[in-house]
């Protein structure tokens, strides 16, 4: 038993990813997605500050 025969096998290297070429439409779409995500995050933060929407109103009992 010489070398690495009994040991753990070394994982194979993954091929390098080829970067996709983006044109103007793709850039515009990516920017639009980033902007919408930022707006959604801002709205979520705003909603957290106001507190829960439920909790008020008439509570009904189980009795009739």
Automatic annotation (TrEMBL):
<feature type="region of interest" description="Disordered">
    <location>
        <begin position="1"/>
        <end position="64"/>
    </location>
</feature>
<feature type="compositionally biased region" description="Basic and acidic residues">
    <location>
        <begin position="27"/>
        <end position="43"/>
    </location>
</feature>
<dbReference type="Pfam" id="PF09072">
    <property type="entry name" value="TMA7"/>
</dbReference>
<feature type="compositionally biased region" description="Gly residues">
    <location>
        <begin position="53"/>
        <end position="64"/>
    </location>
</feature>
<dbReference type="InterPro" id="IPR015157">
    <property type="entry name" value="TMA7"/>
</dbReference>
<protein>
    <submittedName>
        <fullName>Uncharacterized protein</fullName>
    </submittedName>
</protein>
<feature type="compositionally biased region" description="Basic residues">
    <location>
        <begin position="10"/>
        <end position="19"/>
    </location>
</feature>
